[in-house]
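ok, trying the design again with the full structure, not the truncated one.
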């Protein structure tokens, strides 16, 4: 019987599939770290108070990238190039999610609208990250190699999501509510398409590495399409709601170190 736990266990137990999984994760986290660092450097003067939180967000993402690389190193594995069809962050940018890299590479200050857009996009993608890490935490919190990493990253992702909720509500109260809701919906609908495509690509690569029979690959692909159909119909709504989080000022301090991994 196929289950999330059995599927992840199969991927994690094979060196080649584990290396691809960690390489994809490390690349995405490192890219997120760079993007947040650039945004923090370009925050407009009126929102400079946000810069330390954005910096903390980026530092967390960098830490996660180091953790995934360290997990590979612990098994004597080197990273592999990330297949373009599995590059979630690159595909998000191509679909207009997140601030354009050309803008981030320039030295011109961002606008308040840019910051609102960044936070709205982050609220959607951090929802996905939080849910994925919660799934891994549920099944692998006690794993001898992955447990500490999964729990640390999961906690960070929950903090990132809480931060997005709180800051977006602040901007909504300041008069940006209509723009925020429009951007959230556009971003959520684009993200679920990208997530579907990346999930299909990752499963195809894993299937080739692990020698899955066509029937198994077909069942997994059907499941991914079913999740997309649900998210396209109603599931996207969980990505656009805003509520004041229990964790207030979740990114108000320095990033936590991970000396046991990095």
């Amino acid at each position: 019987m196929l289950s999330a736990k059995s599927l992840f266990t199969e991927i994690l137990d094979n060196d080649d599939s584990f290396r691809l999984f960690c390489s994809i994760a490390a690349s995405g986290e490192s890219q997120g770290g760079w993007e947040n660092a650039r945004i923090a450097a370009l925050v407009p003067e009126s929102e400079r108070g946000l810069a330390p939180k954005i910096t903390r967000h980026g530092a967390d993402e960098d830490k996660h990238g180091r953790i995934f690389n360290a997990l590979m190193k612990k098994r004597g594995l080197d990273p592999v190039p990330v297949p373009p069809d599995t590059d979630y962050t690159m595909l998000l940018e191509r679909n207009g999610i997140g601030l354009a890299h050309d803008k981030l590479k320039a030295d011109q200050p961002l606008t308040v609208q840019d910051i609102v857009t960044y936070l709205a996009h982050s609220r959607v993608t951090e929802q996905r990250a939080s849910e994925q890490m919660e799934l891994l935490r549920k099944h692998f919190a006690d794993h001898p190699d992955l447990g500490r990493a999964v729990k640390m990253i999961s906690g960070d992702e929950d903090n990132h999501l809480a931060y997005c909720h709180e800051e977006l509500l602040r901007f909504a109260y300041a008069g940006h509510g209509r723009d925020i809701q429009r951007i959230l919906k556009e971003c959520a609908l684009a993200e679920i398409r990208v997530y579907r495509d990346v999930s299909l690509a990752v499963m195809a690569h894993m299937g080739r590495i692990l020698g899955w029979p066509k029937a198994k690959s077909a069942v997994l692909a059907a499941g991914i399409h079913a999740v997309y159909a649900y998210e396209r119909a109603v599931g996207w709504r969980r990505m656009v709601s805003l509520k004041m989080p229990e964790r207030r000022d979740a990114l108000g301090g320095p990033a936590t170190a991970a000396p046991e991994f990095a």
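Keeping the full-length input from now on. The longest helix spans residues 147-210.
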